[in-house]
Inverse folding.
């Protein structure tokens, strides 16, 4: 009898853990197409590639369990080292500025808002040393990369088998229509 009650609970837990509770629907697809169509054809590939590169950087910072670097100290890595890396991305690679430059090449106001929100979240995360803001920035760029621009999934090549995530976080104005 206990097994019968436990199995449905386990199934629900697995479903909740493997999805974000959000689904991409026709409304989201239409919104993505509208945002992409606001980009000049000659700029589309560079915008798409730049968003993908920003996503790659954020994956390295916080995906696949890497967010623990910001809250846990180990003999190999300290949280201060992790924040120094964020600072390097902000000051040397200028990733927040890069997002703002991308925003200048699009006409979609919602896409501009999302890119600005991404940049602000990164800067505030560093200023406040708030890993949750870094994770939020990752979720913005993740949804833009996969669900607006349709780029391929990144894979954690360190795992066997390599894994990637096509989760939909639902945190962008572009796809959700919220302000």
């Amino acid at each position: 009898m206990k097994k019968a009650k436990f199995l449905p609970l386990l199934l629900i837990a697995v479903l909740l853990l493997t999805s974000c509770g959000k689904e991409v629907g026709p409304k989201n697809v239409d919104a993505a197409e509208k945002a992409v169509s606001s980009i000049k054809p000659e700029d589309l590939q560079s915008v798409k590639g730049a968003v993908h590169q920003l996503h790659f950087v954020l994956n390295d910072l916080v995906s696949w369990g890497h967010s623990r670097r910001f809250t846990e100290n180990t003999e190999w890595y300290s949280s201060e080292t992790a924040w120094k890396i964020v600072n390097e991305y902000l000051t040397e690679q200028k990733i927040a500025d890069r997002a703002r430059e991308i925003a200048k090449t699009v006409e979609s106001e919602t896409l501009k808002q999302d890119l600005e929100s991404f940049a602000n979240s990164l800067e505030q995360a560093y200023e406040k040393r708030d890993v949750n803001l870094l994770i939020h920035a990752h979720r913005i760029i993740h949804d833009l990369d996969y669900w607006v621009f349709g780029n391929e999934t990144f894979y954690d090549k360190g795992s066997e088998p390599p894994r990637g995530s096509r989760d939909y976080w639902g945190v962008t104005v572009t796809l959700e229509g919220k302000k």
Summary: DSSP finds eight helices and no strands in the chain. The first helix runs from residue 2 to 18. Residues 5 and 11 are 11 Å apart (CA to CA). Residues 1-19 have pLDDT under 50 and may be disordered.
